[in-house]
Specification:
nine-stranded antiparallel beta sheet; Umud Fragment, subunit A; alpha+beta; 252 residues; 2 domains; elongated; 18 strands
Length: 252
């Protein structure tokens, strides 16, 4: 998109400075100039919105069930954790830092080669810089203190999207009270780690079906894309239709 803005803007500018002054008043401007002049402000506006205000993402996996479902289309606040230049990813303005319990989109920090494409992940912030985070027996421990959980009754929709035998629980992380899914009979990675400065420990709400910091480590601050805040569309790929009751839901 940055390239499109540059190309259309350059064509429009060259025409304004060099081609248009030598063109007869009744002469029609070239088609390429007409398209560039028409599309440049639109593409520029979209780029500004996506780079600095909000960007849409699609949820491709079940790692954040029950908070987010496969087929959800969400909006991410791009200025929650600082304003960054597109492409360069250089932060030019501090606006805030992630809080415990935030649902964040970030670029997957593990790459075999620097040339590998960026992959966007979405998880929940569990550990902040300097925290000692543990995970034992389906329970998170923050600096030695267990994060309280309460059992919840599954709705019919939850039964359809969660694994057989799994349990629905509520959990309080910071100011965020949210639901999680655990599978009591399934053994996953357990252990304890200290979150380095400038990094964040993240986990999926579908605790036994999430590829997260338990497996590949913490997320550097510079990899953060933004804070997820709204489900603006949801599509049921099995039934082939819009899930109307999820539209407009805020993400907690």
């Amino acid at each position: 998109m940055v390239l499109l803005v540059a190309v259309t803007g350059l064509i429009w500018l060259i025409d304004k400075l060099f081609w248009a002054p030598g063109r007869d008043n009744d002469a029609k401007e070239p088609v390429v100039v007409e398209y560039a002049r028409s599309f440049f402000p639109i593409i520029l506006l979209v780029l500004v919105i996506r780079s600095f205000i909000a960007e849409p993402f699609r949820i491709p996996s079940s790692s954040m069930v029950p908070t987010l479902h496969i087929g959800d289309f969400i909006l991410v606040n791009k200025f929650s954790y600082g304003i960054r230049l597109p492409v360069l990813n250089t932060k030019i303005l501090e606006t805030g830092e992630p809080e415990r319990g935030d649902v964040v989109v970030f670029r997957y920090p593990v790459k075999k080669n620097k040339s590998d494409p960026d992959i966007d992940y979405i998880k929940r912030v569990v550990g902040l810089p300097g925290d000692k985070v543990g995970y034992f027996n389906k329970t998170i421990y923050i600096n030695g203190e267990p994060v309280a959980q309460e059992p919840q009754e599954k709705t019919e929709s939850m039964i359809n999207i969660s694994a057989p035998g799994s349990e629905l629980r509520s959990e309080q992380l910071g100011e965020h009270n949210h639901l999680i899914v655990v599978e009591p009979g399934v053994k996953r990675v357990e252990g304890e780690t200290v979150v380095p400065e400038g990094h964040y420990f993240v986990m999926g709400d579908n605790r036994d079906n999430s590829n997260d910091s338990r497996y590949w480590g913490t997320v550097p601050e510079e990899n953060l894309v933004g804070k997820a805040f709204l489900v603006w569309m949801s599509w049921d790929w099995n039934e082939g239709g819009i899930v109307w009751n999820r539209l407009g839901q805020s993400i907690e």
